[in-house]
Design goal:
This protein is of the alpha+beta class and 110 residues long. Helix content is 27%, strand content 22%.
Length: 110
Amino acid sequence: MKQTIRALALTAAIIAAPTTAMADTLLIERAQEKPAGALPARGESMGQVQARFGAPQERLEPRGGQKRQWPTINRWVYPAFTVYFEKQRVIDVVANQADPDEIGPKPPVR
């Protein structure tokens, strides 16, 4: 009986406690708001990306290529996005987190 009363009292205290409203900012929502021209397009060459957006902040170490079936993937990091290349062509572009509170992709493996 005492446990039931304690549980009810604890539940009432939690419900009655003032709570602050919190909203998560999702990276996907921000990415959908951007115009399509603000990111490299699939199939663009490395030269086209560099001519359009300038030199990347960082060029990460290539991944893959251990077997013929596994192509080498190059990754260029820009302030707003990371570009993934296969054989000198864009295969994907991922928006980077704008701030630490934004929910989005994990940082790339370095």
